[in-house]
Inverse folding.
C-alpha cells in the first residue's frame, strides 16, 4: 500500500480464555477514512486501545510511520487523537477546563491553547457550553466534547470509537464533516462502528472484523463486487398484479424476495451476464402479460454484505444463493 | 512538566472534593471540639490528641478517598483521555498521590496550629512549641503519606468501588496505626524521629512502586 501510516503486524490479544483479536494484520494509509466495522464484541475497541497505547500486553506489533508504538517516544502519542466510546470526565471539570488540561498534556503551547480550544469547540458545535460543568451536559454534548478533545491538538491520526452513537442527525452530519475535513488534509481517520450504514457513505475503505478476525478489507465498491452482491434485479409492477413467480423460476433467477405489494427483488445466478439475465426476465414477464412499471439492477447496501459476514463468519461468505 | 500539569489539575480537583473540604474545615473544628468536650486532658496536650486524630481520621479518609476515586475513575475510563497523550501512568498516580498529600498536609498544619495555640494559651505546653509542632506534624505526615499510598494501591488493584472503600477503611486505617507506632515501640527516644522519617519515605515509596507496576500492566 502506498504511503501507509499505521501497520498492524500479527496482533493478537486475549482476555483470559477469551480471544479478542486473532492475528490481525492490516495497513492504513494517510488521507484515508478507514471504517472499522464489526458487531459488538468483535474486537474493534481492543484494536483501537492497542493503537492508542491503552492496552500494552498484546502480541505482534503496531507501527506508526515505521516506529513501534511501544517505543518510548512520547511524540508518537501526541500525534494521535482518540475519541473513546465511553470515556468519562471528572465531575468537577468544566468543558473549558477539560480542554485546557488535555491541550497542555498534548504539548500545546500556552500561547496557542486558547485559539485551539476555540477552534475545537466550534468544530464540535459546543461553544455555548464552554463554561458549563461537564456533569450538567447531555449525553450527546458529552459525546461532542469527546470529539473536541480528540481534535484539539490537530493530530495526524484521528481514532474515533463509535463516534456517531448517541448523536442527533445534525450532530452526525457535523461529525462526518470533521472526519472528511481531516482526511482531506492528508491525515488518517480510523472510525469504528457496529452499524455499517452509519459510515457507508463516509469511509473510503472498510475493514470488517468478526470474532476478533479481520474478514475483509477493501473499498465499498470492492467489497460489493467481491461478494457478488450486484446480481440483484428489482421488478416493480402495477399495484394489484398477481404474479406466479413459479412460472418464472429457473435460470437465471435463483431466489425471489418480495418487498411489498408491487416490488420484488430477484436474485440472479452470478455466472450469467446481467444484461442477458434482465432481458430474459423481461421476456418471461411480458409473456405472462404482467404490467411492468420498472425493472432495474440494484446495488444492495454494504449492510447486506456485512450481515452475511457477521452471521456466517469468514469462511462461508457469499450472497445467499438458493435454488 | 507533565507532572506539574497533572499535579495542579489534581489540586484543583481535590479542592472541589467534598472529603477534602470536610477535612479542611472538619479537622480544625474537631480540634476545637475536643478541647470543648474534654477541657481536662490530665496534663496531655491538645496537640497530642490532634496529632493522633489527624493521623488516624485524616489518614483513613485519605485512603478511602484516593482508593474510591481511582477505582471509580478507572471504571469510568477517565484515564483513557490522559493516557492517550504523552503521559506516563506512573506520573498520573504520583500526581494524584502528591496532590492528595498536599491537601491533607494543609489540613494537618491548620489543625495542629490551632491545637498548639490553644495549648500555649492554656499553659499545657511543657516543651519547645516548635519542636512539639514539628514532632506531631512529622507523625501526621508519615501517617498521611502511608495511608495515601495504601489508597492509591487499592485504587489500582480493586475494580469495585465499594470493596475498595471497605478495604481502605479497615486495612488502610489499622495498618497505618500499627506502622506509625513502630518507632515508638521499637526504638529509644533519640532515634524515633529519624526512624519515623525513614518510615514515611520508604513505606509509601514501596507501596507506590507496587501500585505503578500494577497500573503499568493493566489494560484500560
Amino acid at each position: 500500500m502506498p504511503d501507509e501510516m499505521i501497520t498492524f503486524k500479527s496482533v493478537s490479544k486475549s482476555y483470559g480464555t477469551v480471544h479478542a483479536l486473532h492475528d490481525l494484520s492490516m495497513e492504513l494509509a494517510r488521507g484515508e477514512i478507514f471504517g472499522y466495522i464489526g458487531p459488538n464484541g468483535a474486537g474493534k475497541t481492543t484494536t483501537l486501545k492497542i493503537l492508542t497505547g491503552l492496552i500494552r500486553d498484546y502480541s505482534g506489533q503496531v507501527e506508526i510511520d515505521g516506529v513501534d508504538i511501544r517505543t518510548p517516544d512520547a511524540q508518537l502519542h501526541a500525534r494521535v487523537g482518540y475519541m473513546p466510546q465511553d470515556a468519562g470526565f471528572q465531575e468537577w471539570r468544566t468543558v473549558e477546563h477539560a480542554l485546557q488540561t488535555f491541550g497542555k498534556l498534548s504539548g500545546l503551547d500556552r500561547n496557542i491553547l486558547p485559539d485551539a480550544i476555540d477552534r475545537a469547540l466550534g468544530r464540535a458545535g459546543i461553544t455555548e457550553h464552554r463554561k458549563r460543568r461537564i456533569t450538567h451536559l447531555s449525553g450527546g454534548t458529552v459525546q461532542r466534547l469527546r470529539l473536541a478533545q480528540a481534535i484539539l491538538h490537530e493530530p495526524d491520526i484521528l481514532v474515533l470509537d463509535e463516534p456517531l452513537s448517541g448523536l442527533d442527525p445534525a450532530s452526525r452530519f457535523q461529525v462526518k464533516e470533521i472526519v472528511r475535513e481531516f482526511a482531506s488534509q492528508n491525515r488518517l481517520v480510523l472510525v469504528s462502528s457496529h452499524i455499517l450504514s452509519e459510515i457507508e457513505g463516509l469511509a473510503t475503505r472498510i475493514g470488517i472484523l468478526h470474532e476478533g478476525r479481520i474478514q475483509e478489507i477493501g473499498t465499498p465498491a470492492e467489497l460489493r463486487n467481491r461478494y457478488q452482491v450486484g446480481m440483484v434485479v428489482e421488478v416493480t409492477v402495477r399495484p394489484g398484479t398477481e404474479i406466479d413467480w413459479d412460472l418464472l423460476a429457473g435460470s437465471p433467477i435463483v431466489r425471489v424476495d418480495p418487498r411489498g405489494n408491487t416490488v420484488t427483488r430477484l436474485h440472479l445466478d452470478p455466472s450469467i451476464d446481467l444484461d442477458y439475465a434482465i432481458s430474459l426476465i423481461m421476456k418471461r414477464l411480458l409473456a405472462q402479460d404482467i404490467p411492468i412499471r420498472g425493472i432495474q439492477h440494484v446495488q444492495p447496501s454494504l449492510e447486506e454484505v456485512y450481515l452475511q459476514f457477521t452471521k456466517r463468519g469468514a469462511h462461508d461468505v457469499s450472497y445467499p444463493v438458493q435454488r | 512538566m507533565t507532572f506539574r500539569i497533572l499535579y495542579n489539575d489534581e489540586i484543583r480537583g481535590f479542592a472541589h472534593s467534598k472529603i477534602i473540604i470536610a477535612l479542611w474545615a472538619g479537622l480544625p473544628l474537631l480540634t476545637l471540639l475536643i478541647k470543648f468536650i474534654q477541657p481536662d486532658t490530665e496534663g496531655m496536650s491538645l496537640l497530642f490528641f490532634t496529632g493522633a486524630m489527624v493521623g488516624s481520621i485524616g489518614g483513613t479518609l485519605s485512603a478511602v478517598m484516593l482508593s474510591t476515586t481511582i477505582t471509580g475513575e478507572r471504571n469510568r475510563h477517565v484515564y483513557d483521555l490522559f493516557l492517550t497523550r504523552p503521559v506516563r501512568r506512573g506520573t498520573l498516580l504520583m500526581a494524584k498521590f502528591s496532590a492528595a498529600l498536599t491537601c491533607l498536609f494543609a489540613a494537618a498544619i491548620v489543625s495542629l496550629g490551632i491545637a498548639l495555640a490553644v495549648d500555649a494559651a492554656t499553659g499545657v505546653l511543657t516543651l519547645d512549641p516548635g519542636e512539639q509542632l514539628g514532632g506531631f506534624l512529622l507523625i501526621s505526615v508519615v501517617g498521611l503519606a502511608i495511608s495515601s499510598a495504601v489508597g492509591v494501591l487499592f485504587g489500582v488493584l480493586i475494580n469495585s468501588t465499594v470493596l475498595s472503600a471497605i478495604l481502605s477503611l479497615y486495612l488502610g486505617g489499622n495498618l497505618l496505626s500499627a506502622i506509625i507506632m513502630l518507632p515508638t515501640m521499637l526504638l529509644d527516644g533519640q532515634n524515633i524521629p529519624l526512624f519515623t522519617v525513614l518510615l514515611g519515605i520508604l513505606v509509601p515509596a514501596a507501596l507506590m512502586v507496587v501500585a505503578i507496576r500494577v497500573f503499568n500492566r493493566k489494560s484500560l
